[in-house]
Amino acid sequence: MSPFTRKSPETGTMEHNRTVDMLRRAQAYGYAVGAYNCYNDDGVMAVIRAAEASKSPAIIQLFPWTLNFQGPHFIRWVVEYAHSASVPIAVHLDHCIEPEDVRRALELPFDSIMIDASRLDPEANIAECARIVEEANARGIAIEAELGRIEGGEDGLPLTDLESILTNPGFAREFVDRTGVQLLAPSFGNIHGSYGPLGPKAYWRLDVLKDLNENIPSIPLVLHGTTAVSDVLFRETIKRGVHKINLNRTVRDDYSRFVAANAGKLELTALKEQAVEVHAKSIERLMDVLGSSGRA
Ligand SMILES: [Zn+2]
């Protein structure tokens, strides 16, 4: 069997799943692993170079957009590259919502996939999640589920009543027990996109995070919605059970600015080399903030 048709881990079971293994270590030693959203090969190279330079574990995170636009060959390349790095790097598919995308993703060598567990009513959600977890785990793929609703509208500001979408800690325990998910992405006031002038601190309910962690201490929590989150606030979430932190524009804005300023001026080879370097530096800074540097 080709190494790319086998799932990570090569045994085809959940023993030595890369995502689970690195998050267990992060739990044991009190740090978080960054999950860096990548949209192109520059991003993938930047994460791998940053992780190797910082001796840090890392997660390369793709969206279903990559599944559909760049396709399965690109994903296999990402996994092959990530898994041959000198430090542990997992490849995760984020926000996999459409059933057709889930089905296709399970055929690919992802280490973990995030599914949405908030679209159906609770009983139907549990049944559907349990079914996906069983199928994914049999292929050696871990599952992250979103519980509650992580909002983010046009302007990113939460328009709904936040109380109604917070993850209920009691239900989270029942959900984890009955579905067997490996990671949980809670809603505690976090949103995708901009938090506006008040910043995340105005919306975040760290008490909800703490309750969740106490109810499901063995499950690493995942932080979504990290735009403009301070270094101090990242560390506050790690103290409350967050061990996977999704990072998107936080580590890519400098790269985008560099490319915008230099495209058409530098040779493409020089532009690419320097842009990857800029991107990697932003990632290395976050690896220090999250405490994952030196942990590989
Ligand atoms: Zn997210």
TrEMBL record:
- Please name one Pfam family that this protein belongs to: F_bP_aldolase
| Catalytic residues (positions) | D94
Question: From what superkingdom does this record's organism come?
Answer: Eukaryota
- Details of cofactor binding: Binds 2 Zn(2+) ions per subunit. One is catalytic and the other provides a structural contribution.
- Give the pathway annotation: Carbohydrate degradation; glycolysis; D-glyceraldehyde 3-phosphate and glycerone phosphate from D-glucose: step 4/4
InterPro entries reported in the protein's UniProt record = Aldolase_TIM, Class_II_FBP_aldolase, FBA_II
Presence of the UniProt keyword Metal-binding in the record: yes
Residues where Zn(2+) 1 binds: H95, H192, H224
A molecular function (GO) term: fructose-bisphosphate aldolase activity
Query: Does the UniProt entry include the keyword Zinc?
Result: yes
Q: Where are the transmembrane segments?
A: none
Q: Which reaction does it catalyse?
A: beta-D-fructose 1,6-bisphosphate = D-glyceraldehyde 3-phosphate + dihydroxyacetone phosphate
The entry's function note states:
Catalyzes the aldol condensation of dihydroxyacetone phosphate (DHAP or glycerone-phosphate) with glyceraldehyde 3-phosphate (G3P) to form fructose 1,6-bisphosphate (FBP) in gluconeogenesis and the reverse reaction in glycolysis.
The entry assigns this protein to a family as follows: Belongs to the class II fructose-bisphosphate aldolase family.
Q: What is this protein called?
A: Fructose-bisphosphate aldolase
User: Organism source for this protein?
Assistant: Microdochium trichocladiopsis
